[in-house]
DNA sequence: ATGAAAGCGCTAACAA
DNA sequence: TTGTTAGCGCTTTCAT
């Protein structure tokens, strides 16, 4: 069907070897011939077949990227950087979504192996659950496929670029404590996630280390809006909230607002991610930047290092989050205002809730 | 290096043909043999080489996805669906970012061809500029590569799943007009983008068709926050705003708020995209859902149809946006309140602006 | 400087 | 039911 080097060779009455040499900029071809080969290749609309090339060279030009959750906006900058860095080096990015499913992750990795990717970047499903590093990563390692684990779940002997999740919890808690808050709480701490657990642990530790009567009032996750309304209605409610991520923070701000409270006047909120909109909401979110571009950069560097030196010792890098103080956090209020039960304002809420699934 | 069917065959003293048959679930192998082949394949950790397979079968299992701008969150749901639908059918997704660069787009398409993708989905760069369909798409068509154009720039003879950009402009304008607004404006209409131009045209047409003194006061894009502050300071300012997308709407709401105005009490805002956070900001954004999942679904269906019938006539589908009325739009105010010049509140703004590039 | 030929791992037509 | 064999398009030795 498509044009092959054979076609070019035949048309010129030369051999495929010569054509191949020209197309790969290899020496040993007379300039005149070279020019004619190039010309014919262009005329015929020749496009090299990468499958054939990969097959004979025993290596592909693919970088695989396997994400636990493609729907999560936090990975988009990472993906963009991977694509961009990969492109510079002549690689194509193969993408696969594990959709929080361990078995699907295994299948994704298997598919990547079948495509003989040159290297793999993985945000494992494990960090969303309590599982430890699943066996399929050990398999991958045993098969000597270059890959780098991302996220927060490392493993002895495996390359990884990890983020300090516990540290970010402490960072945010400390930020609130320094502002004068003593009663903190965590919102959105859905159980079973390692990332979440580590962030929570960080908050607890920072509060404990601080002393001076500082307490974590509440870190229940599943209670939802009604649960939080009940908490907010109490006079001894927390004044500083660590939200597990920006989206939760945004949601919590609506719960506050619907009850007539606001941040940072009544309650301070700090979260994690620094998604693109977080600076444009009001109050602008105090948050911790995940530095996804940097993580992508490091991840790719590590991957290429591994690809270049399959036998070098395991690499690990730990990256910190960066605090971005904005308007949603401030000193605690002098006076605890009453939280007006949101159910009385049901007209407004009903409207807000209507017509859209993503609410 | 890796295990091949030859290894399996040799170990069992059988032929590669038999092994291939078993591995592809082809009939004509004795059950006992079949079982032993499978067993050995597993024991040896055999992983089929897709490059070899593609080469001999003359078709790959790749779907290529080329996006004008991977950084834009509006494409993420689309990507997720493509990946998911592709997976169901046994395809891997190859991704490439054109970064708004026409030449990069051309290179991306070329790379996809070199990988002999079974089919291609493309959000062209063109829709962000005024260019018409670039030649590389005609090339692609001439080479008989199955591909589907997405976005809003179609072309005779090329398959496409397009969104009615003009219609969405009209939809939003009409929404505001029906609420009673007569002085409308467009915010964020960066010039040179076809998508933007079409949306603007839609707004203008709807306003014109409505009559009754309705006018589009302003649709200048580049004036930025200061420009808008000047507009908002006028007593004859617009009361209904069509924002070119959710992010612009969010930004505009901050401009309003920083001047002491609010939506929908003083000014109504309606936008396009329905990004995930748009229902959780306050006021929740009235917006038009791009129905990315549906577009992905249609796009993939069309692509598979094209792959199955390369000679069938060109296909085109037009999808509408869906209005999602939320809190940011309401009736026009009875009284025009004064816009307090934001420069007097510089402390707040300075804080919001500090420390982050993404602002 | 050039070409003939082997072979990467796989599938499928053909033979047995 | 099984095996032999000829490629798929390409790179690369080894002759010439």
Reconstruct the topology from this structure.
Two copies of one chain form a homodimer.
Chain A: H1 5-12, H2 16-23, H3 31-44, H4 50-57, E1 62-67, H5 76-88, E2 92-97, H6 102-114, E3 119-123, H7 135-142, E4 147-151, E5 160-163, H8 165-179, E6 183-187, H9 194-210, E7 215-218, H10 224-233, E8 240-243, H11 246-258, E9 268-273, E10 286-289, H12 292-308, E11 316-319, E12 322-324, H13 346-353
Parallel strand pairs in A: 1-2, 1-3, 3-4, 4-5, 5-11, 6-7, 6-8, 8-9, 9-10
Antiparallel strand pairs in A: 10-12
Helix pairs in contact in A: 1-2, 1-3, 5-12, 8-9
Chain A binds a DNA duplex (16 and 16 nucleotides) through helix 2 and helix 4.
Descriptive notes:
The structure is a homodimer of 359-residue chains. Chain A has 359 residues and is an alpha/beta fold. Chain A has 13 helices and twelve strands. Chain A has helices at 5-12, 16-23, 31-44, 50-57, 76-88, 102-114, 135-142, 165-179, 194-210, 224-233, 246-258, 292-308, 346-353; strands spanning 62-67, 92-97, 119-123, 147-151, 160-163, 183-187, 215-218, 240-243, 268-273, 286-289, 316-319, 322-324. The longest helix of chain A is centred in the middle third of the chain and has 17 residues, at 194-210. The first copy, chain A, is elongated, with a radius of gyration of 27 Å. Chains A and B meet through helix 4, helix 5, strand 2, helix 6 and helix 11 of A and helix 4, helix 5, strand 2, helix 6 and helix 11 of B. The structure holds a DNA duplex (16 and 16 nucleotides).
């Amino acid at each position: 069907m498509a044009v092959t080097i054979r076609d070019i060779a035949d048309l010129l009455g030369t051999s495929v070897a010569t054509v191949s040499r020209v197309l790969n900029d290899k020496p040993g071809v007379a300039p005149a011939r070279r020019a004619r080969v190039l010309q014919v290749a262009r005329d015929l609309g020749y496009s090299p077949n990468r499958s054939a090339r990969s097959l004979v060279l025993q290596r592909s030009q693919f970088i695989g990227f396997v994400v636990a959750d493609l729907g999560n906006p936090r990975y988009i900058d990472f993906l963009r950087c991977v694509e961009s860095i990969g492109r510079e080096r002549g690689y194509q990015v193969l993408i696969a979504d594990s959709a929080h499913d361990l078995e699907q992750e295994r299948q994704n990795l298997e598919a990547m192996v079948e495509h003989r990717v040159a290297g793999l970047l993985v945000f494992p499903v494990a960090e969303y659950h309590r599982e430890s590093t699943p066996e399929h990563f050990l398999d991958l390692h045993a098969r000597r496929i270059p890959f780098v684990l991302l996220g927060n779940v490392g493993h002895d002997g495996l390359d990884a670029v990890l983020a300090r999740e516990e540290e970010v919890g402490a960072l945010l808690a400390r930020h609130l404590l320094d502002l004068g808050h003593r009663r903190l709480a965590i919102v959105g701490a859905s159980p079973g996630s390692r990332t979440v657990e580590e962030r929570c642990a960080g908050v607890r530790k920072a509060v404990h280390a601080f002393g001076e009567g500082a307490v974590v009032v509440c870190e229940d996750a599943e209670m939802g809006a009604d649960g939080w309304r009940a908490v907010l209605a109490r006079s001894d409610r927390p004044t500083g909230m660590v939200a597990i991520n920006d989206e939760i923070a945004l949601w919590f701000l609506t719960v506050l607002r619907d009850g007539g409270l606001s941040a940072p006047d009544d309650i301070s909120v700090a979260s994690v991610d620094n998604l693109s909109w977080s600076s444009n909401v009001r109050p602008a979110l105090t948050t911790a930047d995940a530095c996804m571009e940097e993580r992508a950069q490091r991840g790719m560097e590590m991957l290429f290092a591994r690809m270049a030196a399959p036998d070098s010792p395991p690499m690990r890098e730990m990256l910190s989050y960066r605090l971005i103080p904005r308007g949603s956090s401030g000193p605690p209020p002098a006076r605890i205002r009453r939280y007006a039960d949101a159910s009385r304002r049901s007209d407004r809420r009903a409207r807000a809730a209507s017509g859209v699934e993503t609410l």
